[in-house]
Amino acid sequence: MREGSLEAPTRHPIDWQSESFWDEAALERELERVFDICHGCRRCVNLCNAFPTLFDLVDESETMEIDGVAKSDFVKVVDECYLCDLCFMTKCPYVPPHEWNVDFPHLMLRAKAVKFRKGQARLRDRLLSSTDLLGKTFARPLVAPLVNAANESRPLRKVLAGVLGVHPDAPLPKFHADTGRKRARRVAEAVEPVATDATRGKVALFVTCYGNYNSPQVVEDLVRVFQHNGIAVHLPDREACCGMPKFEQGDLDSVARAARINVPALAALVDQGYDVVAPIPSCVLMFKQELPLLLPDDPDVKKVAERTFDPFEYLWLRHKAGLLKTDFKNPLGDVSYQVACHLRVQNIGLKTRDVLKLVPGTEVFPIERCSGHDGTYAVRTESHDASVRIARPVARQVAERKPDHFASDCPMAATQIAHVAGSVLPEHPMSLLRRAYGI
After folding, report:
1. β-bridge mates for residue 86, sequence order
2. How far apart are the C-alpha atoms of 356 and 363, rounded to whole Å?
3. What's the pTM?
């Protein structure tokens, strides 16, 4: 046995359709086994609140070992994990192929799934993770302004906190009736694609719930930038949520239902010669990693995963082939750039930074620390304060640097950090790139 693995981490398929996955006694034994390993290691103590919660439970127990922690308290650790995957990808020395076979995030996912199936998920969490429903309800011409105004009203936010458990200080996304899909269609132009060894030169744009209803400008900017670089952009005829919000709640049946809508449509476009891109890192990760692990026997899932790219990953591949335009008109100056967790775990490097650095008169300062947002974690009354503590080191760096721009590929992370920093406006790197091109 070796102390830690020097091999690349691998992931096992999530065996959620077997009876053993849902066996609570077996789950409890596995939680105890992994928690004992984590207690003896403690390398991940500074990543999120799950590990301090675990270690406090151990340290405050009579034995000061995992056997002294009440099994009923294990859920306290589970509830603090928001599946950022950083412990698996950047810290843990015992991930597979190591014989201890520790996959902390997917073990937390299993515990969340068991909890959800038992009907123990709160109405608030079910609602907040129903992004398609919220978008279709609130992103309407007469409704969106009222909802946005209500979300900025302190008295109404206090009512929302009491009724639903949404923290009154947490910034909430705005809704837009002029959605991302509408904007993408409006600015679409005919482009003659040029393929390379790595890219096909035409992409199916998975707009995402957040891009469609909450951040449509980013969608428009992506289409503009891609078309400026000779990349044809096509919208799938039908699109549902990628499933990540439900995944983080442990609602795996809903994830599978969303996949049955999205995957066939995207697979058909892949067969027609398209690559797939999405403006939100979590959605890219869902197609690249999580769906292939949840549905390992589906050939269409595998097909889509193999042709899915982060937008800046795609642009960098085009640059390597000599096809990315560098006719930049506007320098960006000093850019503080928070690298979103679900982008880091894709293992593609800092492609956003690399593309932005091509702009003359631009310096990019990357910050590889978590924002603590996770979609719902930062807005829940019981976890908002912990999310702010997680975001504070990033916010401090941004505030002290006083950059010309602050950006993150994840709009929710950018908003959270800017809110904590209090002195910067959140921007998206694709919007900055469009500004640099002057288009």
Report:
1. none
2. 8
3. 0.94
Domain boundaries, given as residue ranges, for the chain: 20-117, 123-164, 180-316, 326-437
Within this chain, domains 180-316 and 326-437 share the same CATH topology:
yes
Q: Which CATH number fits domain 180-316: 1.10.10, 1.10.3470, 3.40.50, 1.20.58?
A: 3.40.50
* C-alpha atoms less than 13 angstroms from C-alpha of 161 in its C-beta half-sphere: 16
Helices (H) and strands (E) in the chain, counts: 23, 8
Q: Say which amino acid occupies 41.
A: C
What CA–CA distance (Å, rounded) separates 257 from 260?
A: 5
The secondary structure of residue 380, as a DSSP letter, is: B
Instruction: Give the three-class secondary structure for 96.
Output: coil
Q: What is the CATH number of domain 326-437?
A: 3.40.50.1860
pLDDT of amino acid 242: 96
Q: Tell me the C-alpha distance between 360 and 302, whole Å.
A: 39
Please write the tens of the pLDDT for every residue from 18-32. 999 999 999 999 999
Report the 10 Å Cβ neighbour count for 43: 15
